[in-house]
Amino acid sequence: MQKLVAIKGMNDILPPESARWEWLEEKVRALMARHAYRNIRTPIVEPTPLFVRGLGEVTDIVEKEMYSFEDRLNGEQLTLRPESTAGVVRAVVEHSMLYDGGKRLYYLGPMFRHERPQRGRYRQFHQIGAEALGFPGAQLDAELILLAHALWQELGLQDVRLELNSLGQPEERRAHRAALIQYLEQHQEQLDEDARRRLYSNPLRILDTKNPAMQVLVEGAPRLMDFLGKESLAHFETVKAILDESGVAWRLNPRLVRGMDYYNLTVFEFVTDRLGSQGTICGGGRYDYLIEQIGGKSAPAVGWALGVERVLELLKDQGVPVPELVADAYAIVPDAAALPQVMAQVQRLRALGVSVQVHAATGEGMGSMKSQFKKADASGARFALVFGADELARGVVTVKPLREAGEQVERPLAALADWAATLQSSR
Q: Is the pLDDT of residue 405 over 90?
């Protein structure tokens, strides 16, 4: 029969690599708890109109990248989520979560986009995101940026720069849009096919082009910042002032527009040069009109999402050490007849917080002591626990260090709690 394999761009995450994912997720959960952000989990499949309405009909995601299909049961149009902000907002609206005030939320999970797989860009990829909903002030924009910056410090990441811009409010963008279209119409011969397609539907995205032949043209385009009113500028100045006071370096990027239509005021990205064209590892901004667009009562919001694969790739590129998940101890069992007694002792240790891997029996018994010690050493465990017939008869277990200096010693089975406490304090 033909061997079945995973879909291209949708990858299995296997041990020991999965340990790196768990390590990152644990760091994120601890950081979110310190910032009073609470976990939210939304469905992977959502109604297609949620993303069309929320992200914008003329965005690349909606036009080209969504995995959409018809529900065979009722004909409903459904989509595998390409991002999570719209789903979080939908859940907040559906469950009236803002009735008693703003909410700080975070999520972790897979997203799906139909595009050509390459380093740092996959068809199934994973994001971690943070959203603060129901808070209008520039303080929250800065808080979200500081939260992401704190994560880079927690992970030991370097060579990550923060780029900022303000998109202002819709009326300010409309004035800028008219000026931008007029400018680009005068240089249509320099526009590539994608820019000509966007000229009247979404001209702001032309400013984000990666086409080298259009860079001079884009640099000379009208700047949105020049169309911002006093309130939008004051909002942006407050964000920058908080970042400056907190010692977080930033760079103004007037071409930064992000890929979704729902943003207004502050937008930002954390970027590295170490991952080539996939250098944006985190991005976000304020989206004060999305909640109303999705059917809720008007309320402000701001958030960001990071690409897990890109962050892990950057950690690996910079040589940041990520601890492997290995057992504290490996239980060696010379005689299969002793397994019931050994398993009972092992369960005691596990209940005390010690991770123990038990040597698995083969069809011919437990195998030789030599082979079991080889397996114990290969497992990465710190200690081997030898449950020999003589030891068990005397109510003891032999503890042999495998990764550090020290002699093997016998410990009473009745006093394993003391050894467990000592082991955990030395981690």
A: no
